Amino acid sequence: MNLPADGTPSVLPLEPETRAFSEPEEMTSRIEGAMSTPGEERQDTPPFPTLTARAFLRKGTFQLNAELDLYREVTVLFGPSGAGKSLTLRLLAGFEHPERGRIVLDDTVLLDTENHVCVPPGKRRIGMVFQDLALFPHLTVLENVAYGIGRERSENARTAPVPAKPFRKYFFETAREIFSRPGKKPPRHGEWEQARLWLSRLGMAHFEERFPSEISGGQQQRVALARALAPEPDLLLLDEPFSALDGPVRRNLRRELRKLQRESGVPMLYVTHSVEDVCALGDRMTFVTEGRFAGALPVEKLWGTPLSELHWKALGWGTFLRGELRLSSEGPRFSWEDGILQITSERLLAASPCDEERGSFHSSLGKNRKMSRAAAVFVAPQDIKLIHPDAPVDPFLETNLFKGHIVEAIHLGGILRLTVETAGTQWQIECATANFPQNSFEEGAICRFAVPPQNIAVL
Amino acid sequence: MVSALRLSLQILAVVLPLLFLAGTALGWLLSRKHFPGKRLVTFLLHLPLVLPPTVMGLYLLFLLGQTPLLREMKLLFTLPAAMLAAFTAALPLAVTGARTGFAGVPQNLENAARSLGDGEWRVFFRISLPLARRSLFAGMALAAARALGEFGITLMIAGNMPGRTQTLPLYIYGRVEMMDFSGAHAAALLLVFVASVCLLTVHRLEEGRHEPSR
After folding, report:
1. Do A128 and B111 touch (CB under 8 A)?
2. Distance CA A207, CA A128 (A)
3. Residues of B in contact with A211 (CB under 8 A)
């Protein structure tokens, strides 16, 4: 990037739309894996996405710009409340109709506003687990699970729909039901065995005669999962399904869901705002904020350097600063509203988005020492060195030394999590409590910490 | 009295299924769809509840007697006119019951059924209708009681002809006019009985609604 000679900082492409998130190398290796060993479980990720969705939807003042590519794995849609996560699911399921867009699932066009294609929800072969579960209260557990099994959902189903129960018959049956105790209902086709299989897979075999109101929340959750999986959908959407459950139940279900996904290979899109869910379940994650999508990211990379401010905001982890990068006589420096940080040139080199820019930027900085550019830096909480209150400062740590007062101190087992404020900037610091005397870091106290230059990531 | 009872039952036999169909359809429409003129439709549907029956009857009288096509059908002062009177009076109750019922069915349940492969008809018959049925039938019970007891509109457009348009309430009126109180009491007792049954049904349905519905 060639900077203007007058030294005005030119803005680097930090916005999520323009940053490339995908890993080309990783993708090709996956493709090769799929070509050589098509039968293997983890490697049969197809070279092209199972589902591609591009859609624009306006709801009042809210605008959703959905951009999604799903593979045969668990993709987590992550973002704060009201970011449009649920709306995206409803869009894919076909409950919402976008102003323009195109959704393709396994070569089937589900939606194409240009060509006026819109497959109704019932024929999309997309299963969904609702946030409130939406179990049918008037059907038993078994009937709930069997509900979607054996339904014809192919193209010819449109021309020959399954006939509804004759109205007269329905009228009398309903009238009889009101005045009599609910009894056993006659079997419909032959789907009971399949429904029982799914129930036993989720450990609910003993509850088939119960009604949803007669089982616990975790059990209802299992039934909802079984019901959505039983018709063997081509895609499963999960809308914060475990948000109402407590710790152990939640962990168990998460593990089972993961197992089910591995076994069936059904692609899943999981909506959540819990970071724990993301790490425990996801293969890949996509950030959403205010209706905008920030590309996908493998979950392994989640806790590294954030790829954008959006990413950082969504995680709420670490310290993120926006300011200006400048090359001084003592090496590269980052300055922001409240201070200056010394950084290493290696981190600076790694930061530029592409090779061309990297080279030109660095050389331009080298040639003209007054050069600067707008930038952002990130420091992970465990990378900040907290300094013992009574000990002298290690000369090693003297470069970026700060003093601030503690806003918040949380003890999490052996870990101390601090929020420290220095002249308007809040730092997140994590360290092992064992190294420090007890109660030395109380809220309101003053503490010193150092930010080693090699731990500062430049974005 | 037997002929009056028979007429009343005939009217109910025709009107109740019609009420069920019209009430369910309109109730579903009003609770699920948005369309221009929805307020007007709601207003017109509720009007028979608050208008004096004689006013309703007057307008229906002119509608049936003056409108070209309807006039040719010679409906006035016949059994179908009595059926129309009962239908008009009872429709608001049937619609309200159905509307409350459908509005109480969470849309997510319907969406869940859709995501499991249901088309709109199946969603209606397998989810919406079964879950709305308590309110729906409560409304129907009220509507049946109202239809059976219809007096004012019937008198205006169907008249009070024994054996042809004289329903039970009109029969009571006629007996009282003739000072035959025992006949009036007998018919009144019958109506009290039927009305009580309807009301008890409604109560039973209302109570059940707060329990887990199934």
Report:
1. yes
2. 22
3. 212, 214
* Dist CA A111 CA A91 (whole Å): 10
Contact (CB<8Å) A231/B109: no
What distance in Å separates the CA atoms of residue B130 and residue B122, rounded to the nearest whole number? 11
- What are residue A406's DSSP bridge partners? A420
A382 lies in the same domain as A284: no
Size of interface A-B (CB pairs under 8 A): 94
Residue B121: the pLDDT is 86
Cβ distance B112 to A134 less than 8 Å, yes or no, reads yes
Q: How far is B12 from chain A (nearest CA, A)?
A: 17
What number of other Cβ atoms are within 10 A of residue B62's Cβ? 11
Whether residue A399 is contained in a domain is answered as yes
Q: In 3-state terms, what secondary structure has residue A51?
A: strand
Q: Count of domains in chain A?
A: 2
Taking only the tens place, the pLDDT of each residue in B53-86 is 999 999 999 999 888 888 888 888 999 999 999 9
Domain that holds residue A78: 24-36+44-301
Contact B108 A182 (CB under 8 A): no
* B212:A213 CB<8 A: yes
Q: What is the mean pLDDT of residues A255-279?
A: 87
Is there a domain that residue A16 lies in?
Answer: no
Question: How far, in Å, are B104, B140, B202 from residue B199 at the CA level?
Answer: 22, 11, 5
Interchain proximity B116–A151, CB inside 8 Å: yes
ipTM here: 0.84
Q: Which helix (H) or strand (E) holds B92?
A: helix B79-103
Where is average pLDDT lowest: A17-26, A109-118, A366-375? A17-26
CATH of domain B2-210: 1.10.3720.10
Model pLDDT for residues B101-143, shown as the tens digit of each residue:
999 999 999 999 999 988 888 899 889 999 999 999 999 999 9
Whether A217 has a pLDDT exceeding 90, the answer reads no
Question: Which of B32, B204, B210, B214 should we substitute to test contact with A (largest number of A Cβ atoms within 10 Å)?
Answer: B214
Q: What is the pLDDT of residue A7?
A: 40
What's the full length of chain B, in residues?
214
